[in-house]
């Protein structure tokens, strides 16, 4: 498959995303494409992973996944995949933006026996002026329920309470309590091979434990509006993100650094 070949979204799909702030799309990639890029990503994760603590010695966050950032800067083949126009166009169309820029990528490999990923909203961590952000969650294999697929609280971007919580045992407990008393649909579904989900920065999501003995291999790419402005950080995590993911960007200006390239524009 040509990974720059456009994936055309229907108006119905764009409307669904705007209402729920997540969508799952089938057949974004074929098996051959995923096998090729997935092997490169897995090799690089193995090479760069420095987690040497056994699972039962880690905290909740440590048990949730092996996490390796910005693989696109480590390998030319992975760069091709992360900066592909196919993914970038979907992101721009869902954000209703004129183009998509990379915030950063992130491999999230949940080991066999790995724990839950607690409820959280990603944008708590990001010093970004608007919510025109979208994360592509790209399984590198089919993910049955027992492997811990991503779960969404559809439409929960409307909730402000809980946004101030970092990903933790507290966020799992307090956000779960809040969501229980709302009407937002809790979506828990397996992922077919080639199926990719996209979610916005303020929608609440989590993932279950990996109850299998296989690694759950997922690549994620976080996109922002190509014209995204850096805002004054509101917490320490946002300050750190500014330094690491937007180095040299200035508050009040478009985040246009060498590690935030535009991957698609209309």
TrEMBL record:
InterPro entries assigned to the protein according to its UniProt record, in alphabetical order: Phytyl_CoA_dOase-like
Record has Oxidoreductase as a keyword: yes
Cofactor: Fe(2+)
SUPFAM superfamilies linked to this entry: Clavaminate synthase-like (SSF51197)
Keyword Oxidoreductase included in the entry's annotation: yes
A Pfam match: PhyH
Sequence intervals crossing the membrane: none
Sample GO molecular function, one term: iron ion binding
Annotated keywords: Dioxygenase, Oxidoreductase
The organism's place on the tree of life at top rank: Bacteria
Annotated coiled-coil segments of the chain: none
Name of the molecule in the record: Phytanoyl-CoA dioxygenase
Upper lineage: Bacteria, Pseudomonadati, Bacteroidota, Cytophagia, Cytophagales
């Amino acid at each position: 498959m040509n990974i720059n070949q456009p994936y055309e979204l229907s108006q119905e799909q764009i409307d669904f995303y705007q209402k729920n702030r997540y969508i799952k799309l089938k057949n974004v990639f074929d098996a051959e494409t995923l096998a090729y890029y997935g092997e490169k990503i897995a090799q690089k994760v193995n090479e760069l992973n420095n987690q040497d603590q056994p699972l039962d010695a880690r905290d909740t966050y440590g048990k949730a996944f092996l996490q390796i950032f910005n693989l696109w800067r480590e390998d030319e083949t992975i760069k091709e995949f992360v900066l592909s126009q196919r993914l970038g166009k979907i992101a721009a169309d869902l954000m209703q933006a004129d183009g998509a820029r990379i915030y950063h990528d992130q491999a999230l490999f949940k080991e066999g026996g790995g724990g839950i990923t607690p409820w959280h909203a990603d944008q708590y961590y990001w010093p970004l002026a608007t919510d025109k952000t979208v994360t592509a969650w790209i399984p590198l294999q089919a993910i049955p329920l027992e492997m811990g697929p991503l779960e969404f609280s559809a439409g929960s971007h409307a909730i402000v309470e809980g946004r101030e919580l970092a990903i933790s045992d507290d966020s799992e407990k307090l956000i779960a309590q809040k969501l229980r008393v709302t009407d937002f649909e809790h979506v828990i579904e397996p992922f077919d091979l080639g199926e990719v989900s996209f979610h916005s920065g303020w929608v609440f999501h989590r993932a279950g434990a990996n109850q299998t003995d296989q690694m759950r291999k997922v690549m994620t790419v976080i996109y922002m509006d190509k014209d995204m402005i850096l805002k004054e950080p509101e917490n320490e995590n946002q300050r750190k993100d500014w330094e690491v993911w937007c180095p040299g960007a200035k508050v009040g200006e478009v985040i246009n650094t060498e590690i935030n390239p535009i991957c698609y524009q209309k």
